[in-house]
């Protein structure tokens, strides 16, 4: 008996970024789904830490230490943060389609409606509304921002729970 070897978790990550970049049809096993998210989390953590160090090293600490006005300090820090935020947004956009695709395929494999996965678009819309509208008009947040944060977090938790279900066997196409 010669059983085929399963691809490694790293291989699934690479497949999601290349062959299955924007693939919403088919299925994704739990191994593919969690392998993709594992390496996505590892890279996010490493690049986030590296970005934080680079950002901190780029700040004019000598100039900041002599300032007494918090608004001036905030202005200088914000001006140095803009390129970092732009890079994060570009990388997020690059990974958006593979994340969405593997989530939809995983839900289909577990036997759930793909409509659950399309709620992922709602998460993006909620984030854009929160960022583009509320933050840009100096809205102090309050209950709306907190509600949107809780709603998106609850939806992510639901998607994670649904992704944990085992794969459903393929239905046979036999006439009745």
List the helices and strands and how they pair.
Layout (H helix, E strand, L loop, with lengths): L8 H9 L12 H29 L2 H5 L4 H40 L5 H21 L7 H21 L13
Helix pairs in contact: 1-2, 2-4, 4-5, 5-6
Low-confidence stretches: none
Number of DSSP E strands: 0
Main sheet characteristics: none
Order of helices and strands: HHHHHH
Radius of gyration computed on alpha carbons: 21 Å
Written overview of the protein:
Helix 1 (9-17) packs across helix 2 (30-58), helix 2 runs antiparallel to helix 4 (70-109) and helix 4 (70-109) runs antiparallel to helix 5 (115-135). With 176 residues, the chain is mainly α. Helices cover 71% and strands 0% of the residues. The radius of gyration is 21 Å and the shape is elongated. The model has no long low-confidence stretch (mean pLDDT 82). The chain has helices at 9-17, 30-58, 61-65, 70-109, 115-135, 143-163. The longest helix is centred in the middle third of the chain and has 40 residues, at 70-109. The two termini are 35 Å apart. The chain contains six helices and no strands.
